[in-house]
Amino acid sequence: MSSALSREDVAHLASLARISLSEDELDRLGAELPAILDHVAAVQGVVESAGEDVAPMSHPVPVANVMREDVVRPGLTPDEALSGAPASEEQRFLVPKILGEE
Amino acid sequence: MTTATQKIVPFDEAITRYDPVMGLEVHVELNTATKMFCGCATAFGAEPNTQVCPVCLGLPGALPVVNAKAVESAIRIGLALSCDIAEWCRFARKNYFYPDMPKNFQTSQYDEPIAFDGYLDVEVPLEEGGTRTVRVEIERAHMEEDTGKSLHVGGATGRIHGADHSLLDYNRAGIPLIEIVTRTIHVPAELAPAVARAFVTQLRDLIVALDVSDARMDQGSLRADVNLSLSPKDSGVLGTRSETKNVNSFRSVERAVRYEIGRHAGVLDAGGSILQETRHFHEANGSTSAGREKSDADDYRYFPEPDLAPVAPSREWVEELRGTLPEPPSERRRRLQAEWEFSDLDMRDTVGAGALDLVAATVAAGTTPAAAKKWWLGELARRANEDGTDLADLPITPEQVAAIQGLIDAGRVNDKLARQVFEGVLAGEGTPDEVVSTRGLEVVSDDGALGDAVDRAIEANPDVAQKIRDGKVQAAGALIGAVMKEMRGQADAGRVRELVLEKLS
Fold first, then answer.
1. How far apart are the C-alpha atoms of B265 and B230, rounded to whole Å?
2. Is it true that domain B447-503 has CATH number 2.40.128?
3. Closest partner CB to B48 (pick from A12, A16, A91)
């Protein structure tokens, strides 16, 4: 079992995922997250025991070069595109103001 | 460091104490008909959200498929930059939360770029005359997708700060981009700004020759970022770098490098430290201002894109594409110089002004090389300089320049009137022919009207006329001047001279 994650690590992960966590939650997740890491570590173990003969795989089937011709296909109308948006204005998606970021 | 306390050290002084460490990143928007991973159209200037689909809007369940033409363009760019082409490479997700990418990640390439380890030899104009060839090494060129366009509403200036909300148009989201990244460019400090400009200018020439992009800096289809830090002279100590983003003209690339060198020197002289941050370049006064601070907390959590199959260009395909490459730029420059019979200085000025392709296109449209150069490096360069824009972005085409020269050659306008034709075309008054007729610029070569004017000039200047009769042909200038004045410049001076001499022989 991995040791608990520091509060700083959990806070960093939370900020990357844009999740706001309370002080209590930071502590609780710091203790719980190692269980998930352990689970992933099991996969790491397989990689290590397989050695260099087995390359890490990012895709389930050994296929490459799946491409399409450069031909325009009809997409969505603006109405269709905006139909799922909570708010829109001037045929554009309206999003809340963006603070502190570029 | 606030703006108020910021001291900008003059460039010439800064480089006596510091060496710039510079790298450039250039984004090229490809001119494919469709986006990188979906079949949406890519037309510039379309109505908002008319070129979108579930893939580029990041709707659940949508499956991206790579555009073969975009991969082909990426390989051709890589080959033209003398890069190695990956035998196998993948796309990766660059995760970040920002509404310009509705997927919450940008599909890019991470540690497996399609092209790597190349170079571009650029001709850098020197202040003292002549050029110097500098090899700019290319670290990588990789495939990725452009982001959507944000419109910030509510702020006084249209910028993010102070905005109430933002409006997003995703037409541009997913358009194929090739990002070209140089290695650190090692050149004498005083050359750094000119090298940066020459690299971007000549990279653009190459991209245009490959016909893979419109490569228009003013429209954002070619965008340059300048990464710069200073190292105290001979110290070997590396400084912290700033990244000046989306500099949108060749001239601005040079100005951005100069400004950042002076700014860094000012901060370092004062004992301060440079923030690792992005900077925005301001066209109006050539300065930069702070953008987003970058830090180790930047964590894009790249991982291989599971929805896209790897790209493994066969060696046969790569060699086939190598066969389609245009003449390498340095060879092309040598060939054109010989064909045009330009001196080294003429050529340097032409390349330095970013006018090589424009002159070539004007010559191709039937103008002599000397005349093409005269207009692009004279009248038009002056105008571009006044407007603070690049020559290529002036609203006049090489074909129109050739047409105006054609009017001169046909004797329909003289050089002076031609300048007014240029003015009219640049002001959007139509084709050269239209400008001539609406502004009434055509020269009078009708012998009747000219003959009458010549007679009047002779009558008004009997002394001059007598001198000419006595054989002092050089005195004809005074009569020609009088006629031109009467005709308000709209006379064919050569024909006036002939008439004067005929009448007084």
1. 7
2. no
3. A91
